[in-house]
Structures are given as C-alpha cells and as structure tokens.
Design a protein that fits this description.
421 residues, Aldehyde_DH_dom (chains A, B), glutamate-5-semialdehyde dehydrogenase activity (chains A, B), Aldehyde Dehydrogenase, Chain A, domain 2, Aldehyde Dehydrogenase, Chain A, domain 1, homodimer, alpha/beta, 4-stranded parallel sheet, 21% strand, 45% helix, 15 helices, NADP binding (chains A, B), cytoplasm (chains A, B), G-glutamylP_reductase_CS (chains A, B)
C-alpha cells in the first residue's frame, strides 16, 4: 500500500512537472481561455457541486464536526456566486508572467533586467473550505504554475465535484490536463510524499489549523508559504482621534470573529485610557464581547473585567473575547506587539505624524496600519483578486499572497557579443 | 559540552535578535557611519589581518588542503584592496530599507503600499574565503539585519582578525555590538543549532562545497538561500553571428575555470556546426581545453574528441573540460538545458528576434542571456555592489543575491478612520 501511494505520488509529480514546462510559457490568452472555460463548467455544474457539498455536510454532522468547521465547509448558493466572482476577478487580473522590469545598461554594455516567471509546481494542502480548490487552481493557472491539490477528507465530495468541472474545462481548452491535479486518496501518506518530493514540487502552501501547518512545516523538505496565527493589535495612541478610534476598535474586533485579521488585543495609551476605555467598553458590551484587562484597565472599567494573564497576550481568541492593556506610550506598545504578536497585522490610531511614521518602521508585522481597521488585511481588500493564503513568514511572500507570490523573477541579459574582461 | 554549545548558541541567538530590533529601524546615516568605521578599522589593521591569513595558509599547507581551496583562502594585498573597495561600494549603495512602493488608494478608501524591511537575523555558513566575512557583514548591516557568521576552521585566524576590526568599529559607532557575531568554536554542533534556532534566525545563507550546502539544506529548519552547482550552457543557434559566438564561447569557458558561471556544455545547432565547431575547437586547443562530444561533434572534429556520456551532460567540471553537443534546433537545446542544467545561467547566441524571445521565456534558469557571456552572472557585474551568494532556488531570491535579497516587504495601510464594511 505504501509503495502504491509512493508510485501514485511520483506519477502525479511527474505529470505536474511536465504540465509546468508547458504552462511556463503559455500565452495569456490561452490561460484566460482555460479560466473562462472553467467558469462556464462550474456555472453549468452548480447543482451537482452543491449536492456533493450537502453530502459532505451530512457526513460532517454525523461525524459531529464542530460548528466553525461545518460553517467553513458549507457551499451556499451565495458562496458559490462569490467563488465564481473570485474566478472572474482572476481572469481580469493582469498576467504577471513575462513582465520585464528594471531593464538598464551596465558599464560592461550588457542590458540587465528582471523577468517575472512562474515558480513551477505548487503543492496545496488545505482543510474544509471547498472554494479553496477553485481559488488555488485559478491563481496557479493564471500565474503559469501547475498545482497539486490535497483537500481535507471532510470536503472530499465537494472538492471532487469542483475538480471534475475544472479538469473537463482544461481538457477542452488546450492547456495540459495535469495542470490541476486533485489527490483523491484519503491516505495521509500522500501528504508525506507531497511535501518531500523536491524534484517535482517547488513550493507548499498549507491552509488550515495551526497544528496541520506546524506539522507540515516541520516535515517539509520543500519551501512552505505558511500562515500560522493572527494575533492582531490596535494601539490607541494618546493623540488618537476618538471619532476614528472607536469605530476602528469596534470593527477590528466585532466585524467577524473567526478570522485571522480580527483584533485580539487592544492597547491604549494611559493618557487617553480614562476617556476612551469606558466608551469603547460600552460598545463591546452591546456586542457581548468579554474583556480581559490589565490591572489599570480593571481599575478604570471596574471589576466586571476579568484579569488578563500573560497567556492572554499570546492568544488568538477567534471569538468574542478581547484582551485590553493600558500602556505608558509608543515604546511599550511596540515592544508588546513585537513580543506577543504573531507579526500578522497591527494598527495604530493617532493624529501624530512622527509617531505614525515610527510605528510603521518599528512594528515587525506583515501589515502595519495607521488609522484603519486590521480587518482590511486580506487579498480581496488589497486588490490581489484572490489570495492563495496569508503568509506570516518573511521569506519570499509576506501577508496576503496572490498571483505575485506564486511567481519568481529571473535575470535577463541582452547583449551584442559582450564578453567578461 | 553539548549543553554548553547549546547555551552558547542560544545566547548568540538572543543577542542577535536584540540587535536586530534596533537595526531594523536604524537610520541610513548611522548604518553608513558604522560601515565607514569598519573601513577605517580594516585599513588600520591590514598588516595584522594579512599576518593572520598567513597563519591559516601555513596551517592549510600542513594539512595538505588542495590548491583550489588554498587559493580561495589566501588574502593578498590586492584582494584586501578589492575587499575594501567592495565595502566602499556597499556604503555607496542606496539604502533599500523603508522604501515604500506602489502606494495607491483602494476602493475602500485605504491607501495601500509595500515597505521594504530587513529579514531580521541572518545565519551565514561558509568555507575558506575570508573576504566573505566582510562582504556578508557589510551587506547585512546596510540592509538592517543582524548576522551570525560561521566560517570554516581553515580560515579561523583570518576571520577572527577581520571580526575584531568589525566589532571594534561597531562599538565605536553606536550600533549594537552584537549586530555582527562570529562563532568562534570549531565545534560542528554549533552549525546544527544555528540552522534550527527558528526563534532567533530568519534565513540561512550557506556558501561552500555542494556537500556542505546539501547537508545544511537537509537539516535546516530555517529557510535557506542556497547555491548548488552551476552547470551553464551556451547555445549557438543556426542564425548566430559567429563574430559574437566565437568570443563568447571562448570567454564563457576559459575566462576563469573554477567559477559557477563558467560554461560547462556547449550546444551547437546542426545547421551551423560544420562551420562553427572547427573554428571554436581551434581556440579551445590553444587553451588546452579538453572536449567531450556527442557522436556528431566527433564526426566533425575527429577522433581526438572524447565521447561524452550522459554523466558529462550533468557535470560541472570547474576546469578546462567542455562537453559539446550538436542539436537539431531550439527545442532540443531548451530541453537539454532544462533537463541537464542546474538552472543557473544559460545563453543563446542568435540574431533571430523570435527565437531569442522564445529562449528567454522557456529556459528555466536564474539568468538567461542573449548574445552575452555567462560569466556576467555575478553580483558585481549586475551592479548589486556585493553579493552574499548566488541562489539556485526559485523562492525568495534567484541568481546573485545582494542587498535586496536580504530584505522583505511588508504591507502598509494609511487611512483616516476606515472600517471594513
């Protein structure tokens, strides 16, 4: 069995590499043609795909999956529409491949530039959300990459139904049919092979729970674009405009709870805490957000606020709970964020130009914001069309990863006979 | 002993991380001031550093290190001067940190851009060439990174002498003294810790023999910017201008043998082989370059040409040997390069516009050249000032890696109170 899994994965890898060599230089119109064919195929198969999703949902309920997971698993007609809109967005994105930038002459007479190229073969490992299958496939195709998809067993029927439509469209469109491959065995050994086949796979993108991603990062022999947790902060600085601070602090926490760009800790400058905290606490109370505060927060807001422990500062609640800390100023806020945060998204609310500039330079996070809600940190809001994930790494791609994160740049040199002296 | 090495490395890591948090937002003038102080310190200590290098050279001769290694180890006054010039070049480079690009409004009203930031802490593992100590330290400082240097035991005295000058200058200049740290234990366990301390080190840059780099890549838990072999090709296409092809083919092979951007296989279109091969063979004969050819090459050049085996197509000779293959055209040439090459640097010699364009798009190498010698693929020729290495990876940095390869980009968002709808 292990042998046959290995052979199967080797075959998938070989086919992906072959497809990649064609996709690498596939012209834009051909890639867009294939994506349009996928759009039509999905539209035509909506009923089957939603029916397949209902099978997954029923199985999930029988297996007593938790509600958050079932919510991510479900494909409603509205979500299906959103998925198709995402695909349309990808079709409309400018093809990044082949773009040559910075072309300039060097003293030797050579003309040197950088050309954007696909990475090659992407291995995608994900859980629950079946729309990832389409998002990942469409971003990979648009950027000239082949992709191997390994979804979770809980979404198997949904993913298979989507994959059938994609592959049918690929076959019709003249791109290699193995440009998108779905691993259809539930055997976990397949993942072990996928993340170590260095000759066939150029990058691994895992999406799912933290434990899944940590395991993959530990065992992968291939570079991983990974997203761990999103422990995001809003720092209400002493010179904050409360007309901005109040709606932002409310929005960052309560707009949606189970997302990585939600605020988990609110930091408030001591100079403004007496004024700001009671007002924002009232708004949170309306939304039934539980507050866990430092002693100073408790002093101002009263005993109804639970005590925040050191553990709270590290925690991504993903729910209606918020840690609150009163700080002595910028330095303490930045040190807190860089120490306890997850380098995802952090915001300052201030009208002070110099402090805003300093916050921008010193906060070591993939998105740093001034006077805006942390909830903006995602691929759609950033105009990437769709995102294949959010990277909390610093290497290669940071923050929301769209088309460009699936590309690399090679050097190009034009000459008319130059030799090295 | 193992415990004490681990404690030592933990301390080095902690100090590097602390230094990094200061360096991250250090202003350009302070970084340049420190680099200038290093320049002066090295200039003043030239005699001591060259004397320390002579100790390493003597030890190396006693240990019967091979000549290529001894050559790389030696610091002559001319090389010392080149090293200082490299440092001056780095001082004169534009500071990449803090650059904000692509700042534009999104429909939500937020203003989104990308800001260039340091990676954090770099771990550098290298062999023999002591000038790498300075190159790496200066590139790291200029790009706002802390660096931990682990040189080879054969260069220990040279590296220590250079490191003393660097650290003396750092202490005088107001940057953290642990911005540059040299591991001074020969214990190999130090490398094992360095490449797995994910909390303290953000990227590993190994430079040295292929076996060293392969071992580090295998064992590292931190992203590695690595350079494996340089099996470079020149393809003389049917419409090549021989006035360009002859000097380029000669230069790419014979300008310097032991370098990664030297040509190792010459590909010649069959339409031009009868004319080109005898002329280039004559030039190679003058330089005593041994040719290993395919049957067609042997037919044209005669029996003096040895038979090239499949192994030859894969080989980076790093010496006066060249594999030669006659191909039926572009397709065979590109397939050969993508299959047997190392994705380092490959060139086509042609006057045909469309074929040049196609070669550019389809050859999957970090540098792709038209009518120029592969020898141009290095950081100095590319104007990077100095290079910390050449990457044969696709992720993050590809080809010669200079300042920019040691940076990342974070997203910045400016708003005036925007919340997510």
């Amino acid at each position: 069995m292990q042998d046959s899994i290995q052979n199967y994965m080797q075959q998938v890898g070989t086919q992906a590499r072959q497809a990649s060599s064609v996709l690498m230089s596939a012209p834009t119109h051909l890639k867009n043609h294939a994506l349009s064919a996928i759009y039509t195929a999905l539209e035509n198969n909506q009923a089957q795909i939603l029916a397949a999703n209902q099978i997954d949902m029923n199985n999930g309920r029988q297996r007593q999956l938790d509600n958050a997971l079932l919510d991510r698993l479900e494909l409603t007609p509205a979500r299906f529409k959103g998925m198709l809109q995402g695909l349309k967005d990808v079709i409309n994105l400018i093809d990044p491949i082949g773009e040559i930038t910075d072309l300039a002459y060097r003293p030797s007479g050579i003309q040197l530039g950088k050309m954007r190229v696909p990475l090659g073969v992407i291995g995608m490992i994900y859980e629950s959300r079946p729309n990832v299958t389409l998002e990942a496939a469409s971003l990979a195709l648009k950027s000239g990459n082949a992709i191997i998809l390994r979804g979770g067993s809980e979404a198997l029927e949904s993913n298979k139904a989507i994959a059938i439509a994609i592959q049918h469209a690929l076959q019709m469109s003249g791109l290699p049919e193995h440009a998108v491959q779905v691993i259809d065995t539930p055997d976990r050994a397949a993942v072990g092979h996928l993340i170590t086949m260095t000759e066939y796979v150029d990058v691994i993108v895992p999406r799912g729970g933290k434990s899944l991603i940590e395991r993959i990062s530990q065992e992968a022999r291939i570079p991983v674009i990974k997203h761990l947790d999103g422990n995001c902060h809003v720092f209400v600085e002493a010179q904050a405009d409360l007309q901005k601070a109040l709606p932002i602090a409310l929005n960052a926490k309560t707009h949606r709870y189970g997302v990585c760009n939600a605020m988990e800790t609110l930091l408030v400058d001591e100079a403004i805490a007496e004024e700001f905290l009671p007002r924002i606490a009232e708004l949170y109370a309306e939304k039934q957000v539980e507050l866990r505060g430092c002693p100073e927060t408790q002093r101002i807001l009263g005993v109804s606020v639970k005590t925040a422990t050191d553990e709270d500062w590290y925690t991504e609640y993903l729910g209606p709970i918020l840690a609150v800390k009163v700080v002595t100023g910028m330095n303490e806020a930045i040190q807190h964020i860089n120490k306890y945060g997850s380098h995802h998204t952090d915001a300052i609310i201030t009208e002070n130009f110099s402090l805003a500039r300093e916050f921008l330079a010193r906060v070591d996070s993939s998105s740093v914001m001034i006077n805006a809600s942390t909830r903006f940190a995602d691929g759609f809001e950033y105009g990437l069309g769709a995102e294949i994930g959010i990277s909390t790494d610093k290497i290669h791609a940071r923050g929301p990863v769209g088309l460009e994160g699936l590309t690399s740049q090679k050097w190009v040199v034009f000459g008319d006979g130059q030799i090295r002296q």
